[in-house]
Design brief:
- This protein is an alpha+beta fold and 97 residues long.
- It has a single domain, classed as Lrp/AsnC effector binding domain/regulation of amino acid metabolism (RAM) domain (Alpha-Beta Plaits).
- It has 4 helices and 4 strands.
- A 4-stranded antiparallel beta sheet has the order 2-3-1-4.
């Protein structure tokens, strides 16, 4: 399954309602699972981003749909990167001319 790294920042609403964050995060995990994906790892971070999530999903379309739902909820804004494993890099480099 494709892997995605999402960097998240609180919106003003998300910061104001921080006490509800653990429940919202759990709901998001379950929502992604219902769509056929899963959270591989999740971190609360210090610095430019407030959360970092590593997830896998069945397709880019599922990932995008999930991320649009997160954004629509209004608590975080995301920047998401599609990630490839080291083994993928080896295969890709071997295909170079």
């Amino acid at each position: 399954m494709p892997i995605y790294v999402s960097l998240m920042k609180f919106t003003d609403q998300g910061a104001k309602d921080i006490k509800e964050a653990p429940e919202r995060i759990e709901m998001a995990f379950k929502g992604l699972e219902a769509m056929g994906g899963k959270i591989i790892d999740f971190y609360v971070t210090m610095g430019e981003y407030d959360y970092v999530a590593i997830a896998e999903g069945p397709s880019d379309e599922v990932a995008l749909t999930f991320l649009m739902g997160l954004g629509a909820a209004g608590n975080v804004r995301t920047t998401t990167l599609k990630a490839f494993k080291r083994e993928d890099l080896v295969k890709l480099v071997k295909r170079l001319p």
